[in-house]
Known about the structure:
This protein is of the alpha+beta class.
Amino acid sequence: MKKISLLIVAPIAFILAFAACETTKQEPIPAPAVEEDDLEYQRSINKIEGQVVSKETFNADKAAILKKIGELNDIMAKKDFNSWLKYISEDSKKYWSNSYTLLKASEKLPKELKGLKLKNLNDYFNYVFIPSRKGRQIDEIRYNSAEDVKAVQVTKTEDEKTKITVYYNFVKEGGDWKIELPQM
Length: 184
């Protein structure tokens, strides 16, 4: 009788023990969802070395830069050179007012403008700056440093790679964001 009860009790105990283990298995805890603005913040600051830009500073800088770009869109639509000058860094004004720089830039104009000679900064504004930015969408900013930011368009290519196009470079000058025109 002892052998029969042992043969019956042992398998039942095993089944109960196995069932108890099954019910105590814990489901993996999913990682908290990362907000898109947190991902953008990380993309924006990932090239800065030795400097800290807080998320609050990032949000304030992005808002200020996007506001300036909106104002610049209006200025470009009106072709208002004098208003545009207020948004340009002093170094850029000096560099792009140089006749040698304008001559070199004239040589690199697209084929539809071949033969055109840029004579002054106003020509640069009308023939280079406006056409290269007209109708462009700025999605994000990217820091080169706490005082140097790129305003970029982010697009996906056909093979799902991310393409970054820089349309504006901004530098802090006197506590305000100014456009730094690219040098040749």
